[in-house]
Amino acid sequence: MATVLPAAAPAPAIATAARGTTVLRAAACCVFFVAAGVLLPKWLTFLLTMAAANGLVSLGIVVLMRGGVVSFGQGLVFAAGGYAAALLFNKWGFHDLLGLALAGGVVAMLVAAPFAPLLSRYRGIFFAMLTLALSMVAYGLLMKLQVLGGSDGFNLGRPTLLGWALPDERVGYVLYSVTVTVATLMALLARIYFDSTRGLLTLAVRENELRVEYLGGSVRQAVAINFVLAAFCGGLGGALAAVALGHIEPNFSFWTTSGEFVFVAILAGWQSVVAVFVASAILELVRSFSSAYFPNTWQLALGIFLLVVIRFLPRGIGALWVKGVAR
Amino acid sequence: MLTILIDGLTYASWLFIVALGLTLVFGVLKILNIAHGSFYALGAYAAASFVGWAGAMKLAPGFTLVAMLLAAVAVAALIAPLTERGLLRFFYGRDEVLLVLVTYAMFLMLEDVTKLVWGATPYYVSEPYSLFGSIDVGTQTYVGYDFLLVALALLVGGAVWWWLNRTRQGKITLAVIHNAEIASSMGVNVSRVYMLAFSIGVFLAAIGGAFTAPMISVQPGVSVGVIILSFAVVIIGGLGSIEGAAVGALIVGLARSMAVHLAPVAELFSIYMVMAVVLMFRPEGLFQRIKARKI
Does residue A1 lie in a domain region? Predict the structure, then answer.
């Protein structure tokens, strides 16, 4: 149980070496996916784009989960990011893909920041319910605000990339490449954060809050910061998803959307960042296959799948390849 | 003003019945049951079928009420043992948030099961709604059925309270709520209490669904609306508290009818605003004693 505080962090030299390998691996992974995208059929690149965008939101939940809390309201930041990007696109005529994604993340962070200190007082079911309430308030607002398209939402056009107008036949591929790259980058940053002193402190919060307080760490600060970081991830994902879909609507903030993000996070477990995106891809695959082949029972399949995972893989699919320090 | 009050009251009464089931299940089994909304929907669908059969058998219109009651009983008798024994008991003792997710999975499954059984077309159960004629209050006319709901809520609430506080079985249940481990070591069959409480919870959701079926169109998606409302109710009132569920239902009912009549824009928004405010100031809900933090 000693793996909690700075003292237990790996020695700096080893840490740097390990970090170097992680960066290399991430870069290789990114190059692989971008290259493979050329060969993949269109439906698959779109599916992976959505998986990566949604996976970013779930990555945020995993950041929170490592501190022992789960947010059932990440739809809020997902929608905040999506609407921010869509409004920038339509009202201000700002079309750059990377800029839109970044703006989505920053706006979601700004939306989440005022609530972070407040939410950090709550745990367990109350944290989950309060975040759910916030996202449903946002949903109610978005449904009624005619300026933002009301219940139908609105469409947005095709983005540009660093001043390059994307041609018809390339747009899907470029969106895919950018999303995958952003996702890999965020996964890498998440890994670095998890292994940092503050990231390890988060793990300690999960284990025993009182001990963390006695050892001089601030539990509330850790949870609050994690919430804001999770919001950034969620906003980024929301912006990318909105641009990829070319459409935004209040459902982004509905609780079933948030439920799916939690689903992916639980499926992934809190140990591996790669698992988050694998889980997200699995969900997208299951969703598109079953809605194509058994349109009436895909939720049934999803439910059974989730139950099996919770029952037999309590630490998520990430536990399959991360040899964990259990407990 | 009076309209707001009466609308709020009728809305609160069915909401109270449903939320009571949710809060009871949480109190005993420590599970915040998302699938509760699906049980409500099942009750409504079953009522639609049963009332339809009653009509086909040419029974007197009054029998539709019996049919709705039977529908709720049938749902509870069939679904409760199936889900509790067949599914939930494998997850007891796990993290509360994880249990929420288990019930979310159940909700997803039941959503499709209802669609498979009853199809996606809406059902209308209008016969019982006109049974009680209409009642004039001041200058407004109200449907008598609405007042039946209020009476039903009082009856159900009273019955559950009486059962918990005045009967042997109820006291045993209270002991389990207090501490399942100690109750078990005193010779209480805890898993039977779980089973019983869960069945009552399902029954309450189903009867709420059955008796509101005449007022709504029964179609896919009713479960989603109900669950977010009853969540708000039990969170406002305090998880696991009967009085809390009653007060929470009244608050939500009144907030909603006020919003509907005065500022229709804020309908859904208002309820969650109330919930968020309550959570900020009284995180344990209005009627819940704060527990000591365990080290």
Answer: no
Residue B131 has pLDDT above 80, yes or no: no
Residues of A in contact with B275 (CB under 8 A): 129, 133
Q: Would you call A137 and B116 a contact, using CB atoms and an 8 Å cutoff?
A: no
Q: Which residues of A touch B104 (CB under 8 A)?
A: 259, 262-263, 306
Give the strand pairing for A164-165 and B134-137.
unpaired
| Residue A325 located in a structural domain | no
Query: Within a domain: residue A326?
Result: no
The pLDDT tens digits of the residues spanning A247-298 come to 888 888 888 888 889 888 888 888 888 888 888 998 888 888 877 887 777 7
**Structure-block tokens of residue A255:** 């609780």
Alpha helices in A66-168 (DSSP H): 75-91, 97-112, 116-119, 124-144
Radius of gyration (Cα) for chain A, nearest Å? Answer: 19
Range of the domain at A105: 6-320
How many interchain CB pairs under 8 A, A with B?
106
> What's the angle, vertex CA A219, arms to CA A213 and CA A221, rounded to 5?
130
Domain count, chain A: 1
Q: Is the pLDDT of residue A105 over 70?
A: yes
pTM of the model: 0.83
A295 domain residue, yes or no: yes
- Judge: A306–B107 Cβ closer than 8 Å, yes or no: no
Query: B113 burial class (0-12, 13-18, 19+ CB within 10 angstroms)?
Result: middle
Rounded mean pLDDT, A33-43? 79
pLDDT at B39 over 90: yes
Amino acid in the structure at residue A155: N
Catalogue the long-range contacts made by A93-96 (C-beta closer than 8 Å, 24 or more residues apart). Answer: A95/A157, A95/A158, A95/A159, A95/A160, A96/A159, A96/A160, A96/A161, A96/A162, A96/A163
Question: In chain B, which residue's Cα lies nearest the Cα of A141?
Answer: B269
Look up residue A35 and give its two tokens: 């290259």
Q: What is the interface pTM, i.e. ipTM, of the complex?
A: 0.79
Q: Which residues of A touch B116 (CB under 8 A)?
A: 296-297
B117 has pLDDT over 80: yes
- State the smallest CA–CA distance between residue A35 and chain B in angstroms: 37
Task: Evaluate if residue A157 carries a pLDDT over 70.
Answer: yes
